[in-house]
Amino acid sequence: MASSRSSSRYRSRSRGPSPIRTRHSYLGESEDAVDPDEAAQTNHAFTEGRVAVITGAGSLNGIGFAAAKELATYGMKLVLVDINEAELAEAVKQIEEKVGKGNVLGVPTDVSKIEACKALFEKVYDTFGEVSVLMNNAGIGPYGGAYTNLDNWHKVLDTNLYGVVNMVHTFTQAMMSQENPAVIINTGSKQGITNPPGNAAYNVSKAGVKVLTENLAWEFRQANAKVTAHLFVPGWVHTGLTGARTKDKPDGAWTATQTAQYMLERVKEGKFYIICPDNETTPEMDKLRIMWGAEDVALGRPALSRWHPEYKALFEEYMRDNLAASSSLAPP
Ligand SMILES: NC(=O)c1ccc[n+]([C@@H]2O[C@H](COP(=O)([O-])OP(=O)(O)OC[C@H]3O[C@@H](n4cnc5c(N)ncnc54)[C@H](O)[C@@H]3O)[C@@H](O)[C@H]2O)c1
To answer: Which residue intervals make up region (Disordered) (predicted)?
Structure first.
């Protein structure tokens, strides 16, 4: 049993330093201006007759299938990829009805397996000869605590992170060698940025997708490539992953179609970070939460201080004050 001396030392250390109050004036500011060259380049990737490959596109309630339906309206050729063969077959059938049989390919693939990604690559290039939009979107969410459920850690990292790594390693060189511009869109999550406690394995996988995609964008910039990378961060979306097969959409969630449309508009403008709102979380709330998390590191606050009992009131005050300040900056 710990001595009273050591337990009181533990108590004072666990409390950490006094909460640090921060103020922000950046909410009225934005780097969101569109670069016309970047926008022209990314727009070209979405033109009629070009080819989009979407992983995790088999779920009829999912974001990947919603993106496929949108891209079908652009007259693009579509490659739908999913591990679930039965759902994929139905998804392909529905897209074929929109764009015709010759313009859709369904390829059952487990993206966590590099050999499967290579076989997919061969099939896509044999059939359509190029890829202008690669959307790495397949994802799963079984629970992995920080020190529990090791099997789930492997499953989640193999799909959510290695699935993206495998696809990027398999497709990037060929996409860079193409004559025309192309884009790679990787689906991350706010859980990989603000790291809300609850599913450490999922958060780690999505933090990895963020870091990978940032590095990919930098490498494309260094290489003066005609390929751009984009980090797509959905908000709360009513999909297979969040219970759409059994429940009605909660008021706070967005639909997959809303989310896919929001994402595509911004990729076409050349944006790298695409942080989607939902019916509960506004872009201003996201900005403040992201800044608070970054300041945990910069200011040396306790890990995940947003969920620390001694910081709860301060975090709420920070959100309230800054949201009030930002609404006073908004045009009437
Ligand atoms: N729904 C949300 O609120 C939300 C929020 C943030 C991020 N995301 C991310 O969005 C992406 C799409 O998920 P969704 O919400 O549309 O869920 P979804 O379950 O409807 O779709 C995910 C699809 O990925 C497929 N898949 C799973 N493992 C695979 C593998 N190894 N190989 C190929 N396909 C595989 C599934 O079969 C499914 O069709 C995921 O990366 C998810 O983490 C979702």
So the answer is: 1-38
